[in-house]
Amino acid sequence: MTQLVTTTTTLTYAGARAALEAGLAHAEQIGVPVNVAVSDPAGNLVAFARMDGAPLLSSGIAQDKAWTVTAFNGIPTHEWFDLIEGEPALREGIVHRDRLVVFGGGVPIRVDGALVGAVGVSGGSAEQDRAVAEAAAAAI
């Protein structure tokens, strides 16, 4: 029999806040003001913060990084370039899609292997953004 309905496990607001706070703490520890966005598994924003001094433009980028992760079933944004660099047509075409981000700072939040949300961070270098996002995701 074909299954017509499925149950999705999702990050709660409390979980999103825990991830957000862990990410902000890590950013503060490394001295980089960033924007941190936490989404549910559908890419919808659940929690967001812009630290004092974080670039305004980066607020949208952080949200797009979280969305990119969930829109592609949990692929972290830092893995994108390696996936597309050997395919010129794909590499040149896909980057024109709205909201797609192909550099570090977006990571999945998984619980027991299930994608329950994502974290997007922007404001530092790609490596700093990734470290903050990973610290946030690790809190769940």
Strand segment count: 4
Span of the ends, CA to CA: 35 Å
Give the radius of gyration: 15 Å
- How would the global form be characterised? globular
The arrangement of helices and strands along the chain is HEEHHHEEH
Number of helical stretches of at least 4 residues: 5
* Main beta sheet: 4 strands, antiparallel
Overall SS class: alpha+beta
Placed side by side, the strands forming the largest sheet appear as 2-1-4-3
Strand content: 15-25%
Helix content: 40-55%
Stretches with pLDDT under 50, minimum 5 residues? none
Return the average pLDDT rounded to an integer: 95
Q: Which features would summarize this protein structure in a list?
A:
four-stranded antiparallel beta sheet, 5 helices, 140 residues, globular, alpha+beta
What can you see in these coordinates?
With 140 residues, this protein is an alpha+beta fold. The chain contains five helices and four strands, in the order αββαααββα. Strand 1 (35-39) and strand 2 (45-50) form a beta hairpin. The chain is globular, with a radius of gyration of 15 Å.
Secondary structure layout:
Blueprint: H1 13-30, E1 35-39, E2 45-50, H2 57-71, H3 80-84, H4 88-94, E3 106-111, E4 114-122, H5 126-138
Antiparallel strand pairs: 1-2, 1-4, 3-4
Helix pairs in contact: 1-5
Brief write-up:
The chain has 140 residues and is α+β, with helices and mostly antiparallel strands. It is 41% helix and 19% strand. The chain has helices spanning 13-30, 57-71, 80-84, 88-94, 126-138; strands spanning 35-39, 45-50, 106-111, 114-122.
